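Board notes (copied after class):
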Amino acid sequence: MDKRHEELVEKLKDSEFKKGYENACGEYKVGIIPNIFGWILVFAGNTVYGKKPSYEKFKAVEVIARIPYQSWEWISYMFLTAMYGNEQKAINLTHTSRFGRVAQDNETMHVVVMTQICKREGLGGPFRHYLIPLLFSFFYYIVSAVLYTVHRKSALELNYLFESHAYEQYSEFIEECGDELKKRHIESEFLKFYGRECKNEYELFCSIRDDELIHRNESIRRISVPRA
């Protein structure tokens, strides 16, 4: 758990603060390349899991969402081995690797908790819940790693699109199922281990939604950081 991230999640519970934070990057326009790959990912996910948000879809989304952060962290460390002599580049790379580590730890919490919810609901077929997300993840890892190596901005913009889609899906789910989610108690040892307290699924999904918003905005903020 990252203290600064959790503090921001708490601030986002205030509707006025959240509105301003959401609008800060809400109208950002991405390039052609990330648009193409973003469309492929969203279209493929909607084809397999449907356009409507669901527990099944969220589990697959969270498996895939960890991938770009893992690839960025690995590439940043790889570049660091050749750039120890340039302190500014080393600082920039370290910032990226830290962002990648915090984000993928956060996404790991999401997927572990979502997996437990799917188990409780009896949703766990090996093809839809394991094989397909792994195939998507392999594709996304290659694309993210190549883009980050040759055109860092496109990699960050692609992540912006994916996280925007996740944020919209969670927002729709909460709006449609909020009353029912408030009645569902959440019990997760991993959630406690991570350090987040949620009384019910409504609080859980609101916090996950806001995690994705933070990742979305942070992806754009990282574009302004000089390339190492």
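Comment from the instructor: The first helix runs from residue 3 to 11. The CA atoms of residues 167 and 209 lie 5 Å apart.
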